[in-house]
């Protein structure tokens, strides 16, 4: 979810997401949720969380059309390392009718890897009801794929780029592999995550 579909900026001091290096866009845009910068050209919405914190959510360009399209063709699940107190209200806005996301999985469904200090998204822990060869994980964090690297579509980080065209490219990949009985061989060839993450397991992340 975070930096993959959306990018959130918090006006309080809490952090609900996985610890990653993120730019502090608030310092260059707006000091309050009521005064968005005129230079801000990506679609966004402001949201008050159940605990009172306020968040501005930047939507990756084309997000609404992407979600509508892929959910009409595929079974779409959201798997995030973020805390549900933040992620659930955001997803409610993105899918107000509850018709696009079949299931939502939050931080408690991830596997925390102490050696790498990262939450891993192990698809085997989810009750997906499909063979693994027909399951795809789209994520911006390579570490998310550690358990099933051959199922991954790796995308770039999104923060606030109005020219970003990533979601259209993802839809193109999905259309390419839609008819394959087992998508893992094609994804291995396209993204090479299996070999790259084997190196991470053996030698640790590169710095």
TrEMBL record:
<feature type="region of interest" description="Disordered">
    <location>
        <begin position="21"/>
        <end position="42"/>
    </location>
</feature>
<dbReference type="GO" id="GO:0005744">
    <property type="term" value="C:TIM23 mitochondrial import inner membrane translocase complex"/>
</dbReference>
<feature type="domain" description="FCP1 homology">
    <location>
        <begin position="1"/>
        <end position="177"/>
    </location>
</feature>
<keyword id="KW-0813">Transport</keyword>
<keyword id="KW-0496">Mitochondrion</keyword>
<dbReference type="InterPro" id="IPR004274">
    <property type="entry name" value="FCP1_dom"/>
</dbReference>
<keyword id="KW-0653">Protein transport</keyword>
<comment type="subunit">
    <text>Component of the TIM23 complex.</text>
</comment>
<keyword id="KW-0811">Translocation</keyword>
<comment type="function">
    <text>Essential component of the TIM23 complex, a complex that mediates the translocation of transit peptide-containing proteins across the mitochondrial inner membrane.</text>
</comment>
<comment type="similarity">
    <text>Belongs to the TIM50 family.</text>
</comment>
<keyword id="KW-0809">Transit peptide</keyword>
<dbReference type="Pfam" id="PF03031">
    <property type="entry name" value="NIF"/>
</dbReference>
<feature type="compositionally biased region" description="Low complexity">
    <location>
        <begin position="27"/>
        <end position="36"/>
    </location>
</feature>
<protein>
    <recommendedName>
        <fullName>Mitochondrial import inner membrane translocase subunit TIM50</fullName>
    </recommendedName>
</protein>
<dbReference type="InterPro" id="IPR036412">
    <property type="entry name" value="HAD-like_sf"/>
</dbReference>
<dbReference type="InterPro" id="IPR023214">
    <property type="entry name" value="HAD_sf"/>
</dbReference>
<dbReference type="InterPro" id="IPR050365">
    <property type="entry name" value="TIM50"/>
</dbReference>
<dbReference type="GO" id="GO:0015031">
    <property type="term" value="P:protein transport"/>
</dbReference>
């Amino acid at each position: 979810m975070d930096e993959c579909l959306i990018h959130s900026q918090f006006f309080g001091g809490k952090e609900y997401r996985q610890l990653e290096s993120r730019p502090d866009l608030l310092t260059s845009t707006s000091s309050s949720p009521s005064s968005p910068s005129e230079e801000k050209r990506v679609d966004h919405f402001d949201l008050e969380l159940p605990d009172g914190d306020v968040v501005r959510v930047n939507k990756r360009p084309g997000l609404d059309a992407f979600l509508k399209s892929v959910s009409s063709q595929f079974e779409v699940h959201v798997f995030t390392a973020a805390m549900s107190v933040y992620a659930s209200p955001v997803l409610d806005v993105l899918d107000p009718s509850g018709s696009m996301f079949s299931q939502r999985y939050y931080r408690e469904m991830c596997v925390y890897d102490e050696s790498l200090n990262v939450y891993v998204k192990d698809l085997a822990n989810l009750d997906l009801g499909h063979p693994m060869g027909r399951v795809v994980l789209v994520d911006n964090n390579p570490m998310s794929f550690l358990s099933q690297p051959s199922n991954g579509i790796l995308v770039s980080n999104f923060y606030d780029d109005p020219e970003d065209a990533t979601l259209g490219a993802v839809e193109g990949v999905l259309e390419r592999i839609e008819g394959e009985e087992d998508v893992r061989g094609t994804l291995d060839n396209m993204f090479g995550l299996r070999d790259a993450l084997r190196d991470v397991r053996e030698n640790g992340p590169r710095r």
